[in-house]
Amino acid sequence: MKKVASIPTAIPLIIGIIAVSFSSIFVKWSSAPASIQGMYRLFFTALLMLPFIRPHLAELKSLSLKKTFMLFASGFFLALHFLLWMGSLKLTTVSSSTIILALEPVFIVIGAFFIYKERTSAFAMFGMGVAIIGAVLIGWGDIGVSRTNLIGDLLSVFGTLAVSVHMLIGQKMVKQVSSYVYSFVVFLSATIVFALYNLIDGVSFTGYSGKDWGIFLLLAVVPTVFGHLLFNWLLQYVSATTISMSILGEPVGASLLAFVLLGEQMTWFQIIGGLLAISGLILFLNADRMKWTSKRKRDVEPLKSVS
Questions:
Q1: Looking at the whole model, is its pTM more than 0.90?
Q2: Where does the EamA domain lie (predicted)?
Q3: pLDDT at residue 173 above 90?
Q4: Exposed e or buried b per residue across 236-274, where buried means at least 16 C-beta atoms within 10 angstroms of its C-beta
């Protein structure tokens, strides 16, 4: 496992997983439309970042038209992800909606292979397979049980595809701009996309309860600042595939939180699936170390035979 400075990468990854696990709970608690939740979530996040933007103003002003377009594209797909995925939570359960996020690493591995020629080791693929099987088990008993649920499931699938595109663009862009500038411009772009969508659709920007405004702020601070912003920063050190695999922990955390806070029941399939997802995640995140250990053994064994 790589390190970020002197901190193991697993630590910020785990913090991010816990943070994004709260996202579906907050969405369920709010009665506001998904497009409004998404807009204010990202708007408040951008506002929270403003006090720290001064050291990055020169970089912002020097952004080329091409880079600005790519950052806006990333923001567009992030907004599309939130719109579809948060909308799915209005139609199906937390476990069903978050389980489909397990498709994200599949989309990203395929995309990274064709776009960046990025290869994934067999050991990492095995860990990914175990995690995905576990994630599927979490929502097995609930996916597609009714027409409404099916629509919710489909929204989550397309939302997962959208966030995969967002992550693949991000993997390239954080090598060209600082992670702070990347996150700020992407969040601001996504806010603009949401605002235009709400204007066109005639969705009111005001008139929401104090509880809803509190949830909008919670969505900005917890899953966005300590989740997405943290993941964007980590793209400097690990691949989009690793980030997406880590997010497989979200169905586990979200399902547990839904059980405790929303009263959504968990079956034995979901419990076993959660354990498998965590195990697969551990295998994937340690793939590089296991590969290094195996290579070291091969290098050492011939020396033993000589002695």
A1: no
A2: 13-139, 151-285
A3: yes
A4: ebbbbbbbbbbbbbbbbbbbbbbbeeeebebeeebbebb
